[in-house]
Amino acid sequence: MHRLISAPHALLIGTLLYSSFTFAQSSSALPDIGITAGSTLSISQEQTLGTVYRRMIQGNMPVLRDPVLSQYINDLGHRLVANSDNVRTPFEFLLVQDPDINAAAFFGGNVALNTGLFLHADNESQLASVIAHEIAHVTQRHLARRMEENAKYSPATLAAMIGSLALSIAAPEVGIAAMQATTAAAIQGQINYTRSNEQEADRFGMQTLANAGFDPKAMPQFFGKLADQIRYSSKPPAMLLTHPLPEERITDTISRAEQYPEIRLPISQSFELAKVRIIVRAMGWDNKRIKNWLTRQEMEKLAISKTAQQYGWALYYLDNHQYQQAHTMLDPLLKKSPNNAFYVDAATDLDLYQKHHLEAIKRLQTQLILQPNNPVFKINLINALLENKQAKDSIPLLVRYTSDYPNDINGWYLLAKAYAQTQQRASELAARAEMDALKGNWSAAISNYTKATRTTGLHHYDQARYDARLQQLHLEKVQFDDLK
């Protein structure tokens, strides 16, 4: 499915949210460098804050809405979470459309990863090493522990930091100033504490990496790439603004990685396909640069396989409406791997661009027989039905989809579109309100639900449901306003 929603390219949160302020969960066996932070924030409070912050991020950062890439990064992330200790909350992984090397972890098990990581990671283990590091920040509750340390100096510090972080999302220039004022008295101590956090996250992250079957040596390898960026670039990676990388940290990870047995992993095709998809569709490059990159990979036999190159060319031709060339590239891939979500998604795009709606629908229905729980095929089928003017058929599927995946803005967007096509105004407004709520725009969400409740001929059941949801949204807005 190609670019269902264009995410807003608004101001980014900046350095505050990123991992020097990672949002974490409780640990039953924390190392000696910190305390459990239980007296500062409970797990329940962190989850509430995490929900608020995630919604604000969805509305203010260019979060990628690509179903195929979302499934890939969440599958990879949850594989690592399943092999981590002290996990207390569900995790959700977001991709942010940004070429800088950066990653962030924040309240409630939310992890954000810049698309630039794919450009610089040579293999899946290197990408996984970054994710494992962020997961460790979360499971070790580094933000809550840091807040507790700062709260010792002033009773108002905790509230001020939480509020400043909220402001930094809504208005970055205000939030940064507020956060700096809040913590200026102990800035040197915070720098040292952050370095300890980073080393701890390295240790726990490497263990998670090994437990999940990845190469532990990938962590120091990626650190080496970051160090090279410092040496050979006038602008260091954004990641280093919040992930200090002193020499002893690199040395420590090299030493620890040597303690693990040698491991040789096959090339991850999913990683390569995700990398190529990001290069072609999510790096913001123009056609000339994309074509040069693909040509260079082909001529110089660089990091990606021939299969991944072929997939890259298929996407390039598809996005430039060169359908015959796209077909030529994609057909052999589909014949070899007919159930691969990357290929099926591209073939669906190709069908829809050429108005072959029934072929796309049949392909996706076949895939859902084989993989009935695959969200990529579900959302693609719904989109294909809508493109074929079958909005009425799509609505039951969308109601189920938004129930199963309530945080997926794509589902609510398509549901609003389906209701609009079937002239169900109240339901359309309600779906748009849910989109607004997921992006932290509580005022717009409340306004849309209010309009929905005033729609002529509204059934009493829907009236009661909308009224109840309005009460929830008012409460969420109050929670957000309290943070400010």
Please explain how this structure is put together:
- This protein is mainly alpha-helical.
- The protein contains 23 helices and three strands.
- Helix 21 runs antiparallel to helix 22.
- The chain is 66% helix and 3% strand.
Features:
484 residues; mainly alpha; flat
Strand order of the largest sheet: 1-3-2
Overall number of strands? 3
Mean pLDDT across all amino acids: 83
**Structural class per helix/strand content?**
mainly alpha
Q: Which ranges are low-confidence, i.e. pLDDT below 50, for 5 or more consecutive residues?
A: 6-38, 172-193
Gap from first CA to last CA: 38 Å
Strand content: under 5%
Main sheet: strands, sense, barrel: 3 strands, mixed
Q: Mind sketching the topology for me?
A:
Layout: H1 43-60, H2 67-81, E1 92-96, E2 103-106, E3 110-114, H3 116-120, H4 124-139, H5 142-151, H6 157-170, H7 172-183, H8 187-211, H9 218-232, H10 239-242, H11 247-258, H12 269-281, H13 287-300, H14 306-319, H15 323-336, H16 341-353, H17 357-370, H18 375-387, H19 391-404, H20 409-421, H21 425-438, H22 442-453, H23 460-483
Parallel strand pairs: 1-3
Antiparallel strand pairs: 2-3
Helix pairs in contact: 2-4, 4-8, 4-9, 6-7, 8-11, 9-11, 12-14, 13-14, 14-15, 14-16, 15-16, 16-17, 16-18, 17-18, 18-19, 18-20, 19-20, 20-21, 21-22, 22-23
